[in-house]
């Protein structure tokens, strides 16, 4: 792919949105156009949106064409992101996006000798590459979950059936926030209390289920709040006030909503994904088979459940006693000694 773009021309990336949905990413740089088109056709919608946003963030801070990007630029970008308070996970995600883009450049005309500044020595083993990579080192993440008291305190504080339905779908049905806001009327099977998730992380379409309370709350929302309003909007969850009125609810709107109620209840670090963490942990604690959990929540990697096993010491002790209490183990002592 031969480019007519000047080596000194900076990269400008703009987004075109329709009804809260990103429909087009516009750049003047054909190499970025090619990369984002590749991501759009081979990965999920959310991955495409995240990659486009991450590239925009990077090239806003480093206003250079890709072929001029140096390792020093990437290091300074990491320092800037850290200074602005972004987490190691967010920084690493953006570096992964950049690394994928730089690797794709090597397949394009004029970039055959280009060296990926994130991983500059690709002929090394995976362990050796880690020593040269720019990814932030971070300890094993142990996300927090809600206690039962916190969950019901939050539920009691919710003022609308819409907000209650959203929270219960993330908690009990273990949906990602992006999956909840993407639900359309055609995705619902009321007769079986289930939801078809057509586009999910890693393109894993799946069917999820609602328990009876969640199903009742959803129907209250549709009957009493949504009713026949906004008939041309296919999305289930919409805004009812201000600039968002009649528009599909966004991920950002849900995050602001749950944070607002968390602050109101005096519960810190309330974010949408914490409900999913809590729901998956509960499924594990109730003894659901791991293959079933992975299918239900949209995981393909057997090890993907590990970060969700936030088992307290009290829970582990209880399970230990339950397990070994079932065995008659001879110790040489009489009971009560």
Provide the number of structural domains: 2
Biggest sheet: strands side by side, in what order?
3-4-5
Taking all Cα atoms into account, the compactness measure Rg is: 24 Å
Architecture of the largest domain, CATH level 2? Orthogonal Bundle
* Main sheet properties: 3 strands, antiparallel
Helix fraction by DSSP (H/I, runs of at least 4) = 40-55%
Q: At the first level of CATH, what is the class of the largest domain? A: Mainly Alpha
- What is the multimeric organization of the chains shown? single chain
Fourth-tier CATH superfamily name of the largest domain? Intergrase catalytic core
How many strand segments? Answer: 5
Report what the structure shows.
The protein is globular and about 65 Å long. The protein has 13 helices and five strands. It has helices spanning 30-42, 45-61, 71-83, 88-105, 126-132, 148-157, 161-171, 177-181, 212-226, 251-265, 272-285, 290-297, 313-324, and strands at residues 13-18, 21-27, 188-189, 194-197, 206-209. It folds into two domains: 13-132, Tyrosine recombinase, N-terminal domain (DNA polymerase, domain 1); 148-321, Intergrase catalytic core (hpI Integrase, Chain A, Orthogonal Bundle), CATH 1.10.443. By secondary structure, the protein is mainly α.
Describe the structure concisely.
The chain is 47% helix and 7% strand. It is built from 13 helices and five strands.
Labels describing this entry:
337 residues; two-stranded antiparallel ribbon; 3-stranded antiparallel sheet; hpI Integrase, Chain A; mainly alpha
Write the layout of secondary structure elements.
Layout: E1 13-18, E2 21-27, H1 30-42, H2 45-61, H3 71-83, H4 88-105, H5 126-132, H6 148-157, H7 161-171, H8 177-181, E3 188-189, E4 194-197, E5 206-209, H9 212-226, H10 251-265, H11 272-285, H12 290-297, H13 313-324
Antiparallel strand pairs: 1-2, 3-4, 4-5
Helix pairs in contact: 2-4, 6-10, 7-9, 7-11
